[in-house]
Design goal:
5 strands, mainly alpha, two-stranded antiparallel sheet, 3 domains, three-stranded mixed sheet
């Protein structure tokens, strides 16, 4: 016992010596830095004052520029374009809210207290989260879910295998695809507008105040995150709380396409529609657009006339009113016409 205590003291002494040596080096460096500032204080002060003067001068210049008649004229000249961009941005935000009413089975609420005589840490227990989109399972189920995500998602999150569920997921895929395309087109349209007026904007403003320029011109912020895409989780935590694992299934475009094909293969279709129905996949969306020459079937606006036009696929007779997802019941609409039409049946 005595030799162990001596060994520990020696080790502590060595560590303390090393820390003191490192601290001494740091203090020497700081001292040299302070001496340099004192020695060169006049040139340093001149540089600092010059930089502050330039910064303040630019801030005053940009403030007056954004309040000038010249800038107001430029802003007014593109007002219709900025309004169009902002309306498209609002439409994209609405599509991001496409609802997926899928959740793990609710087995009720409870509380658990560890009353064991031993002070076990059970550190993994703290990772356990109760949520509608988290399924607590065994290690085997968690592993299998990582191998066959779509199959296990349907099984353990109570996805009903029927026509209505398939139609709901097709709508979500349609909306999410429009979101992805819309964000790209919206960014391109905004860049195109900014490029058209770049020669009228002072170079300094373009270089140092690009974000402020975009805001002052009236463009709203584009949300580039993908938080709207739902994530479903299989979580395993051992009974002893010493190990854990989880499998996350993100219902993005790729997985939604696979889910739609999986549901279609196992649904027992009514004979009346068995041979009539098509799947609203990304491939079908593109096929309908190509068939309609990338032109809105209502206002006849095409991507040749409006380069960054968001085109969407619409059910002529809405699914909610008995319409099928079939090629002869699908049409290409621009986002404006589709937004106006909604779930109505038009002549």
């Amino acid at each position: 016992m005595k030799s162990k205590a001596e060994g520990a003291l020696i080790l502590l002494a060595i560590i303390a010596g090393i820390l003191i040596y490192i601290l001494k080096i740091i203090l020497n460096i700081l001292s040299s830095f302070v001496d340099a500032i004192v020695y060169y204080k006049t040139p340093i002060l001149i540089v600092i004052i010059t930089c502050l003067g330039v910064f303040l001068a630019y801030k005053i210049y940009s403030l007056f520029y954004f309040k000038s008649k010249k800038f107001k004229t430029i802003k007014d000249s593109i007002k219709n374009h900025t309004t169009n961009c902002n309306n498209l941005n609002h439409h994209i935000q609405e599509l991001q809210c496409s609802y997926i009413n899928i959740k793990s089975y609710d087995f009720g609420q409870s509380s658990m207290v560890d009353s064991s005589r031993y002070n076990f840490k059970r550190k993994e227990w703290s990772k356990e989260v109760k949520d509608d989109r988290i399924h607590h399972c065994s290690a085997t189920v968690c592993k299998n879910a990582s191998i066959q995500p779509i199959k296990y998602f349907c099984k353990y999150f109570d996805v009903e295998k029927n026509e209505e569920t398939l139609s709901n997921f097709e709508k979500v895929l349609n909306d999410f695809t429009s979101v992805e395309e819309g964000i790209i087109l919206l960014q391109s349209e905004r860049d195109l507008i900014l490029s058209s007026i770049s020669k009228s904007i002072p170079s300094l403003i373009n270089l140092f105040s690009k974000n402020k320029l975009i805001k002052k011109l009236g463009f709203e912020t584009i949300d580039f995150n993908d938080l709207y895409i739902p994530v479903f989780t299989f979580q395993y935590i051992s009974a002893g709380g010493n190990s854990s694992s989880k499998c996350e299934i993100k219902l993005n475009i790729e997985n939604l396409n696979k889910l739609i094909r999986y549901l279609n293969d196992i649904i027992k279709w009514r004979k009346s529609i068995a041979g009539q129905r098509a799947l609203m996949t990304s491939k079908l969306r593109e096929k309908i657009k190509e068939r309609d020459n990338y032109t809105c079937c209502k206002c006849n606006l095409s991507i040749e006339e409006e380069q960054n036009l968001l085109l969407e696929i619409d059910h002529i007779i809405p699914v909610s009113k008995g319409g099928l997802t079939s090629e002869n019941n699908l049409q290409t609409l621009c986002w404006r016409c589709n937004r106006i039409k909604g779930a109505k049946i038009e002549n």
